[in-house]
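Tutorial, part two.
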Amino acid sequence: MTSATTTGQDGTSIPGHTGQLPGSLLDHVLRQSFGLEGYVQHPLGGEIDQNVRATGDNGMRYFVRVTRAEPDSADVLWQNSLLQHLAATVPGLPVPRLVPTREGKCLADVVHEGRTHVVRVMSWIEGRALAELDDHPAALLRQLGEAAGRLSLGLSSMEPPVGLEPHDWDMRRAAEIVEASLHAVQDADRRESVRTIMGWYDELLPALDRLPRSVVHQDLNDANVLADADEDGVLRISGIVDLGDSLYSVRAAEVAIAAGYAMVRKADPLAAAAEVVAGFHSVLPLTAEELAAVYPLAAARLCMNAVTWTRRVAESDTPYGRTRMQHTWPAIAQAAETCPDIAEATFRVACGLPRTREQRGLEEILGEALVEAARDGAPHAPAAQLLDLRPASDLYDEVDWHDARAVRASIDDILDGRRRRGYVPHLSASLLLRGRRRPGADEPATVQVGGLLIVADAEEVASPLSGVVEARGGPGMPLVLRHAVDGQEFWTCWWGLDDSPPVAATVPAGAPLGRACASDEADPLGPRVQVQVHRTARMATWPPPRAVPPSARQVWSHLSPDPARLFGLTESPAAVPTIDDVVSVRRRHIARSQRNYYRNPMNLVRGRDVWFHDENGLAYLDSLNNVTHVGHAEPRVTAAATRQMRKLNTNSRFVYPQIASYVQKLVATLPDPLEVVFLVCTGSEANDLALRIARQVTGRQHIVNIDGAYHGNTGVVTGISPNRYKGPGGAGAPATTHEVVIPDRYRSTYGYDDTDAGVKYARDAAAVIERITADGRPPAAFIAESLMGSGGNIVFPDGYLDGVFTAARRAGALCISDEVQVGVGRLGPWWGFELQGVVPDIVTMGKPLGNGHPLAAVVTTREIADAFDTGMKYFNTFGGNPVSCAIGEAVLDIVEQDGLRENAVSVGGYFAQSLRELQQRQPLIGDVRAEGLYLGVELVRNRTTKMPATEQAFMVTELMKERGVIVFPNGVHDNVLKIKPPMTFRREHVDLYVDALDEVLTLPELRSAVQA
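Running the prediction step on this input gives:
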């Protein structure tokens, strides 16, 4: 038990009064009857009973309940029998266990002031009431449902009680209890919400008598369920307390009450309830009728609570009552806005149940009814043409979906100037409904419900079936028709029609329903009519949503059959592999060492500028991709590639103008004497070639690198990449590789407060070079990224590269600048080494050169290039092919013409400033380091010890993804959020990123990771 756990918080009606036993008398009873000597009493709350926590010298604690009643009273006997029964049937369930007296009895009785009091001692249960917790993770709510299911199983074999008085929390009395107190509710909106919900309850009443019955706890509210953190800090259900309201009732009431209180204080109440229901069903399967009853019962229980406490507060103000109502009324308002049909389908999906036979059969009835109507002579419109608006559709390849007029013109062309109708299928995602991914209730509605007829202006639309108008529609409301086929009723909803028939009018099959409404010129779809089919009048007239989030697609497949057959359509659009399909193939045919981002990845089908889009039209801000340097699917880059593909593509031993044009532009960005170019395909290949050149030219084999660095994945460059050979599965450094300390001013020897840090780190590196040279192992090269990427986004202190280059050259080594990650203007100048005031002997380039196309390069001096040419040919089949060169030239032109280097400095500076401001209020951020548009945010659990927050960094990755922002950790400890977005990143994107990170770092699971 905890101090939040009290008897009668929802009005338990055990007869008695609030007179209490004196502490001295209670101490005597505990000592004499239970053998509890010297226990300290701590009073707990209790509306009717006297509740005490008793703590011994050894730390042992018990829950003590004092009830003013006779030992043989029906209430006391019933409560004791419940606890004894649960101890026997579900011994592992965390409920209080009765502690016997010295004589082996369940209780002791004592007379005080002429009145008999019953004293019971029970085991103490650790935990906090759910009502005290700010957050209820989905896993915790599912556990709540499982615990409720186990409780119901344990109670299912118990006989109904005898002699108990009815009480006010019996769900079978909900209408009576609410009606008795509703007069005290002064707020008209609240009364209306209650009436709506109790209307559902009234509709449910005939079915209540058919539902399975059992003894139920009847009060699994959030004050009677405890949770405690396990050894990993994860919240688990730790206890169920207060069985005082238990009675014999409908079994579904147990899960309904638990689900109802789980909806309180939730942004997405239905999702919370679904977790509880799914947990319960996994232990004790619910019947179809029970599932249909859960939501109306849950909402009705909240109404019982709210109106009763409103009356009680009005009669005699109580702080507890005000606290309960503060959260319950908003939950009731939310509940009243959700159609019970949606809740039932949501619960079925959460429980893993298929569509009902009635749901499956309705689609077949539609087709049969259409055939019958045609046989009866009803005119039938020609079948429409399928129109694919999904994110992967070819429609958007040549059209900017942000340009409504361009999209509309493209659709008009496909439909022959709208002389033909188009049809967008039911439950398809649309890029035109796109939105940045958000969790829970904020998830964008990108999935269309129903079919969409794309028609001409003012085109007449006829009803495919006969029906009766039940609602004429209007702004935001559909025309609703009721149909009956073979004794089965169903309803159709029609949006986007003018001149509709009046209510109660009979519309024969083939008769006009109205004309398509005019649309704004800026509307990308133009005139259209949206059509849905529903099984109930309640759902059809709610009204149903026209679009829903992707996570609700399966729910709506239960609720709304596909209307395609109404329009003579039987084919489906070409299937696009789903995320499950793609992941399955990867697992079968892609090596496990080729790991993907994310525990639950998304299926990306399109990109543009700084945004990814997945198969559902959810958008993700890309803060990670230095590959797509000038933006995803940049039109000028794709146009250059397409033009050249249509002309010529061959290998680089042939002579063609594109290679000459490209290398001239590339060399023009570099300082003298860097002028000779080797074109290759990848950064790994470029670094591999650079090492080969250095070793061949110097006649040496040893290489000096920086600890934590990554230079690629070929066998040679893996051997100079501590990020790999020191990581999981690594075999350690080869004998020819020699590390210098990482110049990390946050973690290493010389910090931010040392103005000579660059010189000192360079001096330490020089010592390594001098030592291996003196040992007869002179280096062929010193290789360094100009800013360390995978090593943790380490920005070199001033003077570092100058000092190390000087030492390397003094030893006869070549200096290699690896610009694969940071080059082509990302740091401001064209090349990162320029910030250090040095000129390397060899430069390697990769990722950004081709904007996602495999293009890389090695650039060196004429002297070194000639020394490499010993007669052995160097040839690269694809490096420098005409298409690659055309793409590379387009990238350089865009960087220059669009001022992207200047943008990197401006936006990068704003980004760094924003992150440092965030650092001031988020203790998990230990360091922010930045240069241009290459930034790192190091997460630590303790700013003093700098304990890496590795686990939390991966949590941030997943949580940011759920908020539509792509980020991933790197660094020696995998605790640095790497930020290297497309160069078109703007200030509004920075604000979005920082706001999302702030939101994530504020979540309890991350706040709790910070050590004082």
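The longest helix spans residues 288-315. In part three we will examine how such features are distributed along the chain.
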